[in-house]
Amino acid sequence: MSDKPITVLGIESSCDETGASVCQDGTILSNVIATQEVHRQYGGVVPELASRAHMQHIVPVVQKALEKAGINARQLNAVAFTSAPGLIGALLVGSGFAKSFALSLNIPIISVHHMKAHVLANMIPEQKPDFPFLCLTVSGGHTQIVMCSAPNQMEVIGETIDDAAGEAFDKSAKLLGLPYPGGPLIDKLAKTGKPEFIFAEPQIPNLDFSFSGVKTSILYFLQAQEKKDADFIKKNLPDLAASIQERIITILLKKVKKAVAQTGVKQVCLAGGVAANSGLRNAFKSLGEESGWKTFIPPLEYCTDNAAMIAMTGYYQYLDEQFSDLSVSPSAKASW
Ligand code: KG4
Ligand code: ZN
Q1: What is the CATH number of domain 7-120+303-319?
Q2: How many Å apart are CA 113 and CA 181, to the nearest integer?
Q3: 3-state DSSP: the chain helix, strand, coil percent, rounded to 5?
Q4: CB of 279 closer than 6 A to ligand 1?
Q5: What is the pLDDT of residue 47?
Q6: pTM for the whole structure
């Protein structure tokens, strides 16, 4: 390889964030994101509206990412983009843009798996884990424990059999009458509450997770309490939020503990949108300290969906010459 720096543009458009980022020799030079507020009024992401908003945002977001990085498009070595999993229309906007931009610059494209990129967000901060490491990836659509042996070598060793942790937060929040996305609101409310209420804990074998029973347990509990007092939720909102958060965290961390015991790997990372949860971050750090593990949590901007993690993953794939053909198609679901 020459002494010239390797500069990769990363593009993220899997859901409701349009992102672009420049990574040079493993350092993030810029990370620009346009969040789509249009979905808030519908209580969830509307796929068609997401695709349209990506179309509006993608060119200015890429321009800004290049400007902020002080990089001319001609200096780019490759364009990396999220190819799966995600909303198909949203992915098509990012991949279509990435292909045409790369073609016009005569440089290769790199198709990136969104969930692998969440894991490699842990390689962005200065303090990075050594390989192999374990990663608990918790997002709106996925909950996984991943064994990462090398940047491009990962294996899912545990995952949810129903709802994802982010969905558990968002659906529970909905039961409390909170708007979408409820995860950050539960986090905020939990700060002033106490985990007074106990919700069901699933008994799932191996390293897998389940959250649908927790949601049902919360629903039945609220229905019973509201029969006695119609204002129960209003009166107990912070304590309810703290109790929901506590249960989700204990489910997650129990399995992380088990994964460390089974694998003997004591470098443990957190990733994904739910890793922005302050209760989870604190409990994860404390568990690491108690247990003698080295823990890593990316800064908030690299936990929720972002293009820096795509650019970083693209950089590692570039080093291994994992390029894609222009005929590559994005996919809503992706095999690991
Ligand atoms: O990784 P992400 O940004 O998008 C997906 O790929 O799904 O994750 C979004 C999820 C949502 O469910 C959102 O409610 C949750 O992350 N989330 C949080 C917090 N911030 C985002 N959940 C709990 N506490 C937070 N502070
Ligand atoms: Zn994500």
Answers
A1: 3.30.420.40
A2: 23
A3: 50, 20, 30
A4: no
A5: 87
A6: 0.95
